[in-house]
Amino acid sequence: MVYEQILYEVSDRIATVTLNRPERLNAWTPVMENEVFHALRQADVDENVRGIILTGAGRGFCAGADMQNLDAVASDPDVVQKLKAELAAGPGGEVRTDVRSDFQKTYSYFPSISKPIIGALNGPTVGLGFVIALYCDLRFASDQAKFSTTFSRRGLIAEHGISWMLPRLIGISNSLDLLYSARVFDSTEALRLGLVSRVFPQASFMDEVRAYVRELADKVSPRSLKVIKRQVYEGLFQGLGEAIEIANAEMLQSFRCEDFREGVAHFLEKRPPNFTGR
Q1: Residue 274 CB-density burial (10 A; 0-12 exposed, 13-18 middle, 19+ buried)
Q2: pLDDT for the residue 31
Q3: pTM reported for the whole predicted model
Q4: pLDDT digits (tens, 9 = 90+) for 57-101
Q5: Helix and strand tally (H, E) in the chain?
Q6: Based on C-alpha coordinates, what's the Rg of the chain?
Q7: What residues contact residue 16 under an 8 Å CB cut-off, 6+ apart?
Q8: 52 SS3 class
Q9: How far apart are CA 91 and CA 108, in angstroms?
């Protein structure tokens, strides 16, 4: 696939997906939406990729939906009907039998990608950009990043499942504060709230993010990452007993895998691991 509004690169077993409309602070469009979906799926099936970074070109991560598109929605009923159909169809218009339906909506498909997705929030992360960031597995922020939900100040609501995801990350009261007020806040507050896991200086930001993902690529089992990701997201819909039963079955299965044998061997032999994902 030829990408027009994103960049896609694989290096050191890391796939980097870069939103690439820097002149518009990477404002989100239907083209970008489709390209990000296909890039994440491309990384997921590539055996040379162990982790994924999602970031933005220039000085922003994503300034939200392109205002020209929003203006069209506000003024043209036909655009609203088209949007309704697109939301109903889900990402890529496909239906997967191996993924629960909750993770096949327009933006909630990120948990269906089996590899870790790290959101590298290098600047403004607002509106729809904020939603996209929430669906990443981890979020690292530049010390220059700014955040806002923006929806209430556009006459909109908590879009695309953010009312479900955000309270699970930062709690109900904090979520309502950010959603009610749509105020702008910085990376220091984002770290305090638990919205982001780490904050790095802008000058070394991408180096720090890549160092983290490189450690995942070099030192941990890709099979373990895949199973753990599925356990955690599926666990949001499970009781404790069910989660334990699934974990017990997965543990017994892991004992029969190459990566388990390699995990024990490299520790006893005091050498770097060579995990295959099998």
Answers
A1: exposed
A2: 94
A3: 0.91
A4: 999 999 998 876 655 565 666 666 666 666 666 676 677 878 899
A5: 11, 9
A6: 19
A7: 7, 8, 9, 10, 52, 53, 55
A8: strand
A9: 9
SS3 124: coil
What gap in Å lies between CA 95 and CA 236, rounded to an integer?
A: 21
CA dist., res. 213 & res. 193, Å (int): 23
Give Cα 14 distance to the centre of its chain: 15
pLDDT of residue 66: 82
Q: What domains sit in the chain, N to C, each tagged with a CATH number?
A: 6-217 (3.90.226.10), 220-269 (no CATH)
Given CA atoms 252, 257, 261, 263 in this order, what sign does their dihedral have? negative
Nearest to 67 by CA among 135, 159, 131, 154: 154
The C-alpha atoms of residue 278 and residue 260 are separated, in whole angstroms, by 9
pLDDT digits (tens, 9 = 90+) for 245-267: 999 999 999 999 999 999 999 99
- DSSP H/E element including 127: none
CA distances from 234 to 1, 81, 197, 254 (A): 31, 32, 21, 18
**Angstrom distance (rounded) from CA 131 to CA 128:** 5
- Taking all residues of the chain, what is their mean pLDDT, rounded to a whole number? 92
How is the beta sheet containing 138-142 ordered, strand by strand? Answer: 6-11, 14-19, 51-56, 117-121, 138-142, 198-200
Tens-digit pLDDT profile for residues 144-176: 999 999 999 999 999 999 999 999 999 999 999
Phi-psi sector, 224: left (phi>0), alpha (psi -120 to 50), beta: alpha
Q: Please list the residues that pair with 51 across neighbouring strands.
A: 14
